[in-house]
Design goal:
Largest sheet of chain A: 5 strands, antiparallel
Strand content of chain A: 15-25%
Number of strands of chain A: 5
Pfam family, one (chains A, B, C, D): HbpS-like
InterPro entries (chains A, B, C, D): GlcG_carb_metab_protein, PduO/GlcC-like, PduO/GlcC-like_sf
Shape of chain A: globular
Distance between the termini of chain A: 24 Å
Oligomer: homotetramer
Number of domains of chain A: 1
Protein name (chains A, B, C, D): GlcG protein
Order of helices and strands of chain A: HEEHHHEEHE
Chain lengths: ~140, ~140, ~140, ~140
């Protein structure tokens, strides 16, 4: 499992990466395997919907069992199906990079990290840096 | 009507088919004619939204009175109408194969089976195998 | 974790207990630690709200970290507080016996079983019988 | 305003107080003046509804402009009115101590801290310790 201490260090590493770059204000959410929030941080001046976007990316990854990058192609290829299941998910199925599954050594999903604030590739990179800082496997999708 | 015993055997046959193939973890829901859940199984490591997708396929079939395969063409041909009724259905109108009506000898709808986890054609095949194992008629749509 | 096989055997033992008694038609839900449905069974002629009641008992136990029997006193002693958090839980906080936590040997919560159909004490007994059939610890609250 | 750094230190001080006592696993949420989440932490084994309860206490304080302790008397004295506005607030009006307004030197509300996990008086004490650690004024209601 992802402990609170690990989740806080994931956030610290993710935001450290954002600050070492020139990214705008960022929001980071760390969820457990059941989709429940463990830790969260919204940087000063990060806009109002950022919490829901970051969580929607992370929860979308857990909802479908793939990193949110994999959802992009699915949404484009099957828009009606994707529209229906987005409604089933109450929006928590955001098809853009930045929702990254956290796996343990055995490959089991133990949670997910969602990041929002910069361009999607940069958001995803923050999540990956955060997850790897704890010696865990980041599965961003493909 | 579909009894609990029959519903459990439908699930057993559907999952047996999945395990005899190389399908990923599957989720199966059996609904009665009123759309209420009779029996349900989510295989280990089947992702979080699978319950809603499986039920959304089965309920979509009951909602419109056709197997969910028939909903694909309708969604593509009439996207605005389909978007509106998807919202009326609160998402339970998933336009993809895998929601299969169960009919009795007289052709009456007595329930529906929804399957999610693999590609849609494989999902649908699991549902059909399950339904036929009980001597019932599977109506997948066309 | 509770595997699908374990969840199905929990249901089988719980319903076996009900059938060995003179209980009315019963409904049983088995949830994982994150509150997601693993397996479910509704006996023939169990009424329409039973799914939501069984799940609401089990989810209520997970929501508060206590067996649902413990919620009775809280609801009676603090009705306004309980009313507010029931709304936060979207109803999934049913204050009546029959939502029983499943703990492993180390005492960790690994899921919950909810039962509805008979009187609450009998519902709870079905859940306990089911959980213990798998060598797991049943925490019904007090 | 409450910066992210301040919010994280409020959480750290609140949880430090809980750990120096013998409190069960705790959950802490820090909201800005608009009710949006700045930072959040859920300790290991804190149960599933704790996020919503902690936020519901803090948001309830902001919703009515008083610490959540003040809502207890209002709920008891005007149960029908309170029931109606709880529904308007979608439950985010939890009438129990532990939702504490954060005020600046001039007395302006700049956010709120919500804590859940122990008995209400202890929850509230964690929030107060956290807020005061940043030299801010804690308004718990009366």
């Amino acid at each position: 499992m992802i402990t609170l201490t690990m989740a806080q260090e994931i956030i610290s590493a993710a935001l450290g990466h954002a600050r070492a770059s020139t990214m705008p204000p960022m929001t980071v959410a760390v969820l457990d395997a059941g989709g429940h929030l463990i830790a969260f941080a919204r940087e000063d001046r990060s806009s109002l919907l950022r919490e829901k976007i970051a969580r929607g990316k992370a929860m979308g990854a857990l909802n479908m069992g793939v990193g949110s990058r994999s959802l992009v192609e699915r949404a484009e290829g099957h828009p009606h199906f994707f529209g229906a299941i987005t409604q089933l998910a109450e929006g928590e199925l955001v098809p853009v990079p930045g929702g990254v599954l956290v796996r343990d050594e055995a490959g089991e999903i133990i949670g997910a990290v969602g990041v929002s604030g910069a361009v999607p590739d940069a958001d995803e990179q923050c999540a990956i840096v955060g997850i790897r800082s704890q010696g865990l496997v980041a599965d961003a999708g493909a």
